[in-house]
């Protein structure tokens, strides 16, 4: 049986609230953008979930079955306590009212304190729609007198991870040190063979080499081996300076 939840949020088994939920347009975006941070926070005892909005298919070397198997392998490495797929259509994801309500229903049922969404500037229309949907659903989840399952709920913050298709010179708001998680992050990305290995040029630098170059660049900026960049629209709130590097 698949470990990926595909039931409508109204029919999901009840769970303890999540510390944070990563909303991903396609399976592999969460791993690419913030796989290291996910693992690091799981290791620190946080309850982390991932909601993939679509199957990610069709792609040139994938299929629904292959992609699901790859997602399950990557999820075992990340070791998150919850992962689901909303079953929305790949390549035609849209920020409709219906999809907003569906996503808000997930938020009400999973009750994540924070949400991580794809960065708001991108070339992939699915990614842009995912960001818009997440922002709208965050607001929608707190509405009263609706048919949505669960109680009114408002995730405290939305943060943004980068899994962008544009070659943007980005200016992140913070960088997470993922030096200890890097090799396992790369292994989790490598589970998606149909996306990152099959049919890709084998001469150096390979796509996987590029992922390492990127992570090393972000690590260099914080004087660590590997890093992951993040953005926020609302100011970052700190309770202490002790975690600052
Ligand atoms: Zn994607």
Description:
It is a single chain. The chain has 245 residues and is α/β, with parallel strands linked by helices. The protein has seven helices and seven strands. It is 36% helix and 16% strand. The protein has a seven-stranded mixed β-sheet with strand order 3-2-1-4-5-7-6, with helices on both faces. Helix 2 runs antiparallel to helix 5. It is globular, with a radius of gyration of 17 Å. Zinc ion binds at residues 25-26, 29, 124, 127, 163.
How are the SSEs ordered, and which strands pair?
Elements: E1 20-24, H1 29-43, E2 48-54, H2 64-78, E3 82-88, H3 97-110, E4 114-118, H4 125-140, E5 157-161, E6 174-177, H5 182-190, H6 193-196, H7 207-221, E7 227-231
Parallel strand pairs: 1-2, 1-4, 2-3, 4-5
Antiparallel strand pairs: 5-7, 6-7
Helix pairs in contact: 1-5, 2-5, 3-4, 5-7
The structure holds zinc ion (ZN).
Structure summary:
With 245 residues, the chain is α/β, with parallel strands linked by helices. Helices cover 36% and strands 16% of the residues.
H/E element string? EHEHEHEHEEHHHE
- The radius of gyration is 17 Å
Classify the secondary structure makeup into a structural class: alpha/beta
Specify the number of helices: 7
The percent range for helix content is 25-40%
Strand order of the largest sheet: 3-2-1-4-5-7-6
Strand content: 15-25%
Q: CATH architecture, please?
A: 3-Layer(aba) Sandwich
By DSSP, the count of extended strands is 7
**Which hetero ligands occur in this complex?**
zinc ion
Number of domains: 1
Say which CATH homologous superfamily is assigned: LmbE-like
CATH topology heading? Rossmann fold
Mean pLDDT: 96
Give the CA-based shape.
globular
